[in-house]
Amino acid sequence: MEPEKEKKKMMGSSLLQTDSPTMVSGNNSYNYAHNSSAQRKMMDSVRPRTEELIAEKLDLERLLAAGGGNTFRVADLGCSIGPNTFHNVEHIVQQVRQKYNHMMMTSAAAASPSSAPEFQVFFNDQVNNDFNALFRSLPPERDYFAAGVPGSFHTRVFPNSSLHLAYSASSAHWLSRVPPEVVDRGSPAWNRGMIHYGSAPKPVEDAYRAQFRKDMGGFLRARSEELVSGGMLVLVFPGLPDGMLHSETQAGSVIYCVNLSILDLVRQGVLEEDQLDNFNLPIYFPHPWEMRELVEENQCFSCIELEVVSPESTWLQQGGVGLRGWAVAMRAGMEELFARHFGGEEILDRIFDGASQKIAERAEVIMNTKCKELPLLYVALQRK
Ligand SMILES: C[S@@+](CC[C@H](N)C(=O)[O-])C[C@H]1O[C@@H](n2cnc3c(N)ncnc32)[C@H](O)[C@@H]1O
Predict the structure, then answer these.
(1) Alpha-carbon torsion 163, 164, 170, 173, what sign?
(2) Strand 163-169 vs strand 227-238: parallel, antiparallel, or unpaired?
(3) Residue 306: φ, ψ to 5°
(4) Which domains are seen in the chain, by residue range?
(5) Ligand 1: which residues within 6 Å by Cβ?
(6) Which H helix or E strand runs over 75?
(7) Residue to mutate (ligand 1; options 80, 88, 129, 335; most atoms within 8 A of CB)
(8) pLDDT at residue 103, as a whole number
(9) In whole angstroms, what is the distance from residue 177 CA to residue 17 CA?
């Protein structure tokens, strides 16, 4: 293919619809903006790490020199509709500004006021994200220039060497598609009667892992081209400590309860067995060793931090009532995905009400789950 055509094709490929849903917006009780405080708390728990990272590892002088001006460009990948994204990017901008002020106070070179960096923040999400809702709620007092960038973060969405810091919160565990083998009746990985790999046989987990490798491989390749040399990539998303099974976590238990609720509806004849067999959640919770392997294969990044951090689960502390909050949070995050496959509001109410009921019945077991935290992977990489 001619280079120009190939380039156009590459840019267009990011606009394809993935299997992962966008978050609920609009006038809906499961609107993500009103049901994402758990994600916000998780990100707040890792703020001190990001502060330390920017203060100690970000080579601001080099980055601004590399950018050829005084604009510092930040991307939030998988921003959704707010408000968490604004909270997260404001924190980053504030920290980089502080770093600049500190640099100026301690540096021998006197800076003229006009050389203070200006910030441009790119809000990226899938094409069908409600960008209008996002733009309408942009903080009026912000001290950065804002732009929306539609397209899948598994592919290129920015020009070559254009970003100084790319950040992604609670998003990188979404796969671009359900692994095809898990809905293939002829495959040993056919996930009959199940909606995820947590409580499924090993070939199912292997198929999910292979899909994550493909997607995260593409994600890292794209970022390695988009970040300037010395630029940083910070990812925070649900993962698992090495050696732990997904079924040993609260998230695993909650997904299992949703699965049981759908199974009940199949038994009652409300849903077809096929509908259940053909439905799988496109999310994967990697272990640190898997991410490390992918970073090493990519070869373009130095690894600054790659570990599991485990904020204590407030849902678990609250007992059964808090656990049912999981079902609401899951619905806010996945309603579109369930609706696309199972149908409208009424059936979704039945699925999630049933899941809440199952969670209540099993609260004791879930509270005693092996993993009492919400394990997150914190990954900080520097472009070589
Ligand atoms: C749980 S929300 C997280 C939103 C926000 N970062 C936060 O911390 O609240 C996950 C977001 O990732 C987005 N997402 C999933 N797959 C994506 C992809 N391939 N490319 C871009 N965004 C994606 C979804 O559309 C969704 O808005």
Answers:
(1) positive
(2) parallel
(3) -155, 95
(4) 3-240+281-312+374-383 (3.40.50.150)
(5) 18, 20, 22-23, 36, 39, 43, 78-80, 84-85, 124-126, 129, 152-154, 169-171, 174, 176, 333
(6) strand 71-77
(7) 80
(8) 85
(9) 10
- Cα separation, 283 vs 362, in Å, equals 23
The per-residue pLDDT for 124 is 98
- Please name the residue whose Cα sits nearest to atom 8 of ligand 1: 169
Tokens of 221: 């390749």
Rg (CA), the chain: 21
Mapping DSSP to helix (H, G, I), strand (E, B) and coil, where does residue 312 land? strand
Structure tokens that stand for 64 in this block: 């601004």
Atom of ligand 1 nearest to the CA of 333: 1
- The residue ranges of the chain whose pLDDT is under 70 are 1-38, 67-68, 107-114, 311-324, 371-373
User: Can you read off the two tokens belonging to residue 190?
Assistant: 């056919």
- CA separation for the pair 323, 350 (Å, rounded): 18
First-to-final CA distance of the chain = 30
Residue nearest to atom 27 of ligand 1 (CA): 80
Among 174, 176, 221, 281, residue to substitute to test ligand 1 (most atoms within 8 Å of Cβ): 174
- 274-321 tens-digit pLDDT: 999 999 999 999 999 999 999 999 999 999 999 998 766 565 566 555
The pLDDT, as a whole number, for residue 105 is 83
Strand partners, 382: 232, 302
Place of tokens 């600054």: 304
